[in-house]
Each structure stands twice: as structure tokens, then as C-alpha cells.
Write a structure and sequence with these properties.
The chain is of the alpha/beta class. The chain has helices at 4-10, 100-127, 145-154, 208-219, 231-256, 263-290, 292-297, 300-310, 314-336, 350-366, 379-386, 400-416, 436-439, 448-453, 531-534, 565-574, 582-596; strands at residues 16-17, 24-28, 45-55, 59-66, 69-81, 85-93, 129-135, 164-167, 177-181, 191-197, 342-348, 423-429, 465-467, 476-478, 480-485, 494-499, 509-514, 539-542.
């Protein structure tokens, strides 16, 4: 509220208010006529110097003396009140009797202007909405099933929390629903609309041959690309494959030598062949015959979804394209509706990979779209980039809280500058991206590290280029470049620093939650930490075990039937609260007012 542009609203044009000892207060001497727009003619002013100031958590006391009369002064008191309100009192001393009425009118007008601004900010805060996009995982998912389970876990009813199921007017899927959760500003949580990106109907007609081709490609992956905790299982399968080959060779040799096949060789070949061919085929057919319960219990259909999406052969390109286009249309619609101020994307299992992909593609398509902003500032983006360029006397690594604060500030700044990018957070749960070096190979024969270096896959922090600085020997790592834009009515273009096409995570916080995997199936063998593949700005969060008989936890991320501790951490990862300074609420309010005009 003490920024010059806002002081011009409530203290009259030309007013100045520096809340620091020795600061200046410039107040017009004529009564104000309510809030005034900046740019008007300044009124004759009277100046004062701040002599003392005391600030506590619940109050501010400021004392100043007028420069033209040391015996006259101004006292400003601000105290907090219950319900998030505040009381502001101006006391002017040493006023001559003939000016008392005039000065009372002036300060009354000042309070009126201040109240008008605060009312506008409060209204904008109440109308602020955010959206959550849920991307479900593998298997025969039913529409809205994941949506309902997620909402029931993250927004449990009670203690003032209500939920409203509504038709999803954005999804092309007939019968799709969304869920609206009214805001709780006592917890800084705005009204939240939850949408589901449903894609299971697009992943159909997977064949056993496609699953086998994908599985054998994974088994033959070089050791360096296999996640260390899964190597023993991969080596076991490789040993069985070699044993099968050796048994077949032994069988062929005995037949060619004119000897009858040994019984033990025939039995071994039959058993291994059944293990690698017959058993999965039968499982696949049984799963399709008996429907969803058995299908989810057995592995066949799960492998089918993963095989089609991770497969980069021409046979699977259209499937991947259909899934991604559905996600891109949903994100574009949420951005373009003008209804939301923030978007959070949550993906579980294979859905986390889809969420990562659609965010990356949406960023390349939207990151240069912006409104006609006259002034753009980038100190927060520059500060985020500075984290990768520490001074010699500071540590090279930073606490997760510091990194995330810089990312969030850079996102706020980016949206304040008028850029049409509302996604602030990506939350992944049980993500196969933990095995990205093993599973992701969009360019066959190209090493994963090369794909990262080429910025084909966004990392967190972003990949950087080395740029020269005026100081010799002090090159700078940079993920930004100069973007030129035109302001209406100006001939010369302006410029501003913006993140490059691979620097989405300069603005987007990535939180990855997982159940630690131990033994063969305890915990979540699908998920795990992703920092080693995508960068140390990713906030990996190991969740407490949800319990269960078998210990398999991949499907338990929003399951509250056993324990609730892991769901509490998931809520923390989503960070549903929105905290903006009052100046930002004011700027948003006035921007929306201008757009309505």
C-alpha cells in the first residue's frame, strides 16, 4: 500500500508516504475528493518527516512532524482486529481552529480512498479461483472414479469443507463431471475446481505382441540405464531367458546328434517356454474374459497401457498423440476461459508421465503469449536464475524451501507481466519417471543424457547456456533470453527476460511423492525419487507406509482406509493455499477492471 502508485490513490495524487525513520510524508493541503486516479494534477502539498516508528506483529505506530511547524505533527496507528481486519487512525496535531474542519474532511477522504482500495483487493481475493487437473493412472479406469477418490482424500467433508459435483463443461467426454470446493480464506485456500483428464478410452486394442516387444526391449536395455533397485529383478529375468536359450540349444543338439531328446531337457524347455509365452498369453485372455476386477489384479492390462504409451514405434504414435491432444485441449481451455488465476496438475502412475508431457508441450505453445502490458519486470526470474550462479562465498546447493519460494515468486511475476501461463505446480505420485533412463527413449539410439542436454525434456532446474558477463572470468549460467514485444501506440519495441523453451521449471514447482520400495513388492516398485534424472530442484517426498497385507502401495496414494498420514503429506505437496501481497490483489483487481472496460 506504500508503493507510490497506490499512495496516489488514497493520499491524493502527488502524495508520498515513507514508513521509515527519516522518511518523508507528502500530503496535499486541500480536501481530497475520494480516490483519485494516478496521473492527475498534484494538489498543493505539505511535507513531514518521520521521527519515530514502532512495529509489532499486531500494530504499527508512526510519529512525524511537519516541516513548516515543529509543534505540529502527525500520528498514524494501524492495529489488527479479529477476522483479518485492521483499524487505521490518523491524528494530526497543531492544527489551527479555522482549519480543523478542512483537515478532518481531508483525512476522512484519505480513509475513504484507502477503504475503497482494500475493498477492491478483498473482492478480487474472494473471486480468485484455482483449478486442479488430475491425470489418472494405468488400468481399466472408470470416468470420474479417480476424481472422486482424489477429492474425498484431499478435501474431506467436515469442518466447513463442502463439495459440489457439477457437469464438466470443458471435457468432450459426455457425462464427465468436475468437483467444486468452495474456498476457505481462513486457510488462504480459494475456491477450487477439480477436473479429470480421462484417457483410458483412448488406449485400446493392445496386442500381446506389442507388450512382448516392449518388455524384451526393456530387458535388453544397457545396465547403466536400469534403475539400481530394479537391476536384480531384471538380471533374474535375463538369467531365465539365457537358461531357456541354452535348453533349446541342448534340445536341438540332441536331436541333430541322432539321440532322442532327454526328458529333463524337454521338461525344462516346456516350462521356460510356458513362463515366457504361454502363461502371459493365458493371463491376458483371462483378464479380458472376466473383466475389470481380474484385469486390475493381473499385470497384463497394466503392461498394455504402459507398453503403448512408452513405445515410440509408428504403431503407437497415434495413441500417444490422441492422449496428449486431449490434455493440451483441456489445459488450453482452462487458460483461455479467464476464470482461473492458478492451475495445479496432479498425475498418478502413468498419468504422471502424461502430465509431464502435456505440460512440456503446453509450455512451448503458450509461454510467449501475453497481454499488452506496458511495464514488465523480471527481478524474481533473475533471482531464480541466480540460484544457479552462487557467489563464491555461498553454498552451491540451496534448501528446497528457498528454491520453491523463488520458483513461486517467478511464476507470480510472469503472470503479473501478462504472460498466459497459469500452471504453478506439478505433483507426481508413484511416477515411472523414477525410471526415466530405462523407460523413456523417444529418439531410439539417442542417450537419455543427450535428450536432457538438448532440452527435449524439461528439467528442474532448467538446462542452461553459458553467457559472457562484463566481469572477466565470471561467466553466467542462463536459462533466459531477451523477448521483444510491442506496446500499442509505440513505434519502438520493448524487451524483457523470459525463460527459454526448456525452462518451464523455472516457474513450475515439481513435487514428487512416492512410497519407498523394498524387497520384491513392498512399497511402490513403480514410483521412486526422480531427482537423479530430472534435477535437484525436484522436491522428492518419501511417504510413510500406508500399511496393507501384501505391502504393495502403488494404488494407495489417495487411499484413506488404512492410514491418513500419507494423504496429509499429499495435501502439503499440492499447496492449495494462495498467498499474495495486497498490492498483487490490487493489481489484479484493476487489471480485470480495465479489461471489462
Amino acid at each position: 500500500m506504500l508503493d507510490p502508485i497506490w499512495v496516489g490513490f488514497w493520499l491524493e495524487t502527488g502524495g508520498q508516504f515513507e514508513a521509515t525513520v527519516g522518511g518523508r510524508i507528502v500530503a496535499p493541503v486541500r480536501p481530497a475528493s475520494g480516490h483519485a486516479a494516478p496521473g492527475g494534477a498534484p494538489a498543493p502539498a505539505r511535507t513531514a518527516t518521520v521521527q519515530a516508528m514502532r512495529r509489532t506483529q499486531s500494530s504499527l505506530l508512526l510519529q512525524a512532524t511537519w516541516d513548516d511547524n515543529d509543534a505540529a505533527g502527525l500520528v498514524v496507528r494501524v492495529t489488527t482486529r479479529p477476522g483479518g481486519r485492521s483499524r487505521v487512525r490518523f491524528t494530526e496535531t497543531g492544527v489551527s481552529p479555522d482549519l480543523v474542519t478542512e483537515r478532518a474532511r481531508y483525512w476522512s477522504a484519505v480513509l475513504h480512498g484507502l477503504g475503497w482500495l482494500l475493498a477492491r483487493a478483498s473482492a478480487e481475493r474472494r473471486h480468485f479461483r484455482q483449478a486442479i487437473v488430475i491425470v489418472h493412472g494405468i488400468g481399466e479406469q472408470r470416468p470420474t472414479s479417480t476424481l472422486r477418490h482424489f477429492v474425498e482424500a484431499v478435501f474431506p467433508e467436515g469442518r466447513g469443507v463442502r463439495r459440489f459435483v457439477k457437469p464438466d463443461y470443458i471435457s468432450p467426454l459426455v457425462g464427465a463431471n468436475s468437483v467444486t470446493v468452495p474456498g476457505q480464506w481462513s486457510k488462504n485456500r480459494p475456491t477450487t475446481d477439480v477436473y479429470e483428464l480421462y484417457w483410458a478410452h483412448l488406449m485400446r486394442d493392445t496386442t500381446v505382441g506389442q507388450v512382448y516387444a516392449w518388455a524384451f526391449r526393456l530387458l535388453l536395455t544397457p545396465r547403466r540405464n536400469i534403475t539400481p533397485r530394479l537391476r536384480p529383478h531384471v538380471y533374474t529375468l535375463r538369467a531365465l531367458m539365457l537358461l531357456l536359450v541354452a535348453a533349446v540349444v541342448a534340445l536341438v543338439i540332441t536331436v541333430l546328434a541322432g539321440e532322442g531328446p532327454r526328458d529333463w531337457v524337454v521338461a525344462l524347455v516346456t516350462a521356460l517356454a510356458a513362463a515366457f509365452a504361454l502363461v502371459p498369453g493365458v493371463v491376458w485372455k483371462l483378464a479380458r474374459m472376466f473383466g475389470s476386477p481380474l484385469q486390475n489384479l493381473l499385470v497384463a492390462n497394466i503392461l498394455g497401457d504402459a507398453a503403448r504409451y512408452f513405445d515410440t514405434s509408428p504403431a503407437s504414435v497415434q495413441v500417444r498423440q490422441d492422449v496428449r491432444e486431449t490434455g493440451l485441449r483441456l489445459l488450453d481451455e482452462l487458460h483461455d476461459r479467464g476464470r482461473y488465476g492458478r492451475i495445479i496438475v496432479y498425475g498418478h502412475s502413468l498419468g504422471s508421465v502424461i502430465a509431464y508431457d502435456i505440460l512440456a508441450h503446453t509450455w512451448t505453445r503458450r509461454s510467449r503469449l501475453h497481454a499488452n502490458a506496458e511495464t514488465m519486470r523480471t527481478p524474481a526470474l533473475r533471482a531464480a536464475e541466480d540460484l544457479l550462479n552462487p557467489r563464491h562465498d555461498l553454498p552451491a546447493t540451496h534448501p528446497a524451501e528457498l528454491v520453491r519460494a523463488h520458483q513461486y515468486a517467478a511464476w507470480q511475476e510472469f503472470t503479473d507481466n501478462g504472460f498466459q501461463w497459469l500452471v504453478s505446480d506439478l505433483v507426481t505420485a508413484g511416477s515411472p519417471l523414477a525410471h526415466a533412463r530405462w523407460l523413456l527413449n523417444p529418439a531410439k539410439g539417442t542417450p537419455f543424457d543427450q535428450l536432457i542436454a538438448d532440452r527435449s525434456m524439461p528439467t528442474c532446474p532448467p538446462q542452461t547456456s553459458t553467457v559472457k558477463t562484463p566481469r572477466p572470468g565470471r561467466d553466467r549460467r542462463s536459462f533466459t533470453f531477451t523477448h521483444r514485444y510491442q506496446v500499442d501506440g509505440e513505434d519502438r519495441p520493448r524487451s524483457v527476460l523470459v525463460p527459454d523453451h526448456g525452462a518451464m521449471f523455472a516457474l513450475v514447482r515439481w513435487t514428487n511423492v512416492f512410497f519407498p520400495h523394498t524387497g520384491v513388492m513392498r512399497g511402490d516398485p513403480v514410483g521412486g525419487p526422480v531427482q537423479s534424472a530430472f534435477g535437484d530442484w525436484v522436491h522428492d517426498v518419501a511417504l510413510p507406509s500406508p500399511g496393507g497385507v501384501a505391502g504393495f502401495a502403488h494404488t494407495k496414494y489417495v487411499d484413506m482406509s488404512v492410514t491418513k498420514a500419507h494423504v496429509t503429506q499429499l495435501r502439503t505437496a499440492l499447496d492449495l493455499s494462495v498467498t499474495l501481497e495486497i498490492e498483487r490483489w490490487l493489481a489484479r483487481a484493476l487489471a480485470s477492471e480495465d479489461s471489462d472496460i
